[in-house]
User: Fold these one by one.
Assistant:
Number 1:
Amino acid sequence: MISIQNLNKVYDSNLIALAEISLEIQSGEIFALLGPNGAGKTTLISSICGLTRQTSGFIKVSGFDTIKNYKKTRSLIGLVPQEFPLENYESVIETVKFTRGLFGKTPDADYIEKTLKSLKLWEKRNTPIIALSGGMKRRVLIAKALSHKPKILFLDEPTSGVDVQLRKEMWDLIIDLRKDGVTVILTTHYIKEAEIIADRVGILNRGKLLLVEEKKGLIKKFGKKIVSVELREKLHTVPKKLSKEKISVSEDKNSIFFEVSNSDNKMGISNTLKMIAETGLSIKDIHTSESSLEDIFLEIIADEERH
């Protein structure tokens, strides 16, 4: 659905916003773009949507070049920006109808009603924008972006500043859109969002795409499991048999921790517990915790910063 080849964006001040980005996004997938502030996420989205022209490289949307076939590619895309570019005194339904008209679409009252109902905006359809809460305004932006039935929906920080209930409703909506065949690309700081709904994840930092990976594969490849073993007696010195392993002792000397990589069978839980038991230590309890996508993201970004 989206094909990007060797994309570069350099601003007049020689600021490199995007560097050699190549990426393929499949039809009907949910793709999450992660990265710290200033990583280039919004610039990348703006380039695909035709709001910013790249310095070099090519972008194709459904096989059409975003520069040569601007109108065609723009008609396939719906964009939900971070800001609220809304007419304060326009009603909800009129602003959504107006956006549909901007794309040259004929009026479709049934589709507009269905869209507003799916976003829980139907009861507010005649309310002026100025009277809406921030969360409701976010819903209006999504309704506007969907007004012309796009094949691709971009969501730039969709759940920034919204409450837990609305965030959950937005996730449900995104999953429903995917069922309808819409390709969804979202940028987010809220990494739990990507962990819950994305099929694939791309990590962007300093304008470079560090990796693109299926979410499950990313967690399996980079994820770690921390196993905490509570002991029946305090451990003042680490037994020689354990000294070479990645094991640390708690401050109170009552527990030891070891790290198990999802991709490393040698440091498996059973092997390590057997090793601990062989030292004669008495185990009282065991707790495990696994890396989240956020842990992995922070580690990859930190590693990039070091280099």
Number 2:
Amino acid sequence: MADESKQTLLDRDQAHLIHPLHNKQTHAAHGHVWVKGEGAILTDADGKEYIDALSGLWNVVAGHGRTEIVEAAAKQMQILPYVSGYAGSTNRPAIELAEKINELTYPNITRFFFTSGGGESSDSCFKTARYYWKLRGKPDKTKVISRQWGYHGVTLAAMSATGISGYWPMFEPRVPGFIHIPSPYPYRYEALPGVSQGIAAANELEQAILREGADTVGMFFAEPIQGAGGVIVPQDDYWPRIREICDQYDVLLVTDEVITGFGRTGKMFGLEHWGVQPDMIQFAKAVTSGYFPLGGIGISDAIAATLDSGEAVWMHAYTYSAHPVGCAVALRNLEIIVAEDFPTQAAEKGEYLLKNLRAALADHPHVGEIRGKGLMTAIELVRDKATKEEFPAEDNMGAKLHLETQKRGLFSRLRGDVFCIAPPVISSREILDRIVEIMSDSVRALFGER
């Protein structure tokens, strides 16, 4: 019923829905029933408007309510709503989308497999790497090295690669063969004297490869900029050194571009900032701006040639791989991203947002760091600014800050006491100014300062 109260809708929700990251108490106390999205604004069932400060889940880069994307979906649904993408079948939108991504991404990444999202893409990377090394006569190269604070999804294998330990205990034992090294985390990584922080953090990979044995390590799997783990932007010498290490020990460099792909960082893809090319990528989220569940992986010419040499059927498949409607939505969305130059928009707006957040909050005694790249930013709260001491986990300072921002009309997500901010790329300067105002007022309200 259109006139149902928000509480009635929440009660119905509680009766029948299980949520991602389900917690009945939190949802009952602070739940939202989103009923409308327009641009960078979400509307709750009680009529209150909120800035969508994380673009949904980092994905709605083009903003809500883009009728041209909706029309592309409707048109394709009328023509061909679904067809299998299994070998022996294809469709025009899938072909055209592969060609378009080939134009946009790293020059050596030329072949693509489509999935329904990031978690499926992670598993597709693991399985592709394993098969590749078997064809190369190195079947023991199965191990995956990833990083603390990395987020790669929550299928059992993707969760095992994810370096946020809170995702593990309920579902252990994890899949064997996944190893984690420290994040480069410039705010917190401690390097020994005489070596740069970035090189030292990259060398953690070499040390892990040597500990495990290079003949057992198949791939290094990492986000160019860590997103859900707290917007961790690596040092400028980090990724070039990582590429050297992977080449030296014959390890595939696989980048998770689910958040960093298609413009959000100020480049079309994340590693472009450091002039490095990966051997394999995965993507999702911004490829459709969230209007349809779609993801995928891209592989280099060298990997593709090896897979093509195999005589057996590649036993990996999803029902919705190369979904024609999803591919049509992605194509129209990518046209918008290119036509409206999202990388440049993200670079300029991100610089503006970061500068103003720092001007408003950098001197606050409980704001440890304000960081970002493009329209990926984060505010890290600390108990002691001088020592970088964190608040006790039970204090829930990040969650308390989010309650304050919601009072003022801003909704986002956080990692502990790190508040993430990544609004749609189409966000106006007025929206960015309002984000700064809300964050400033909320931090001061949280700590009792006027």
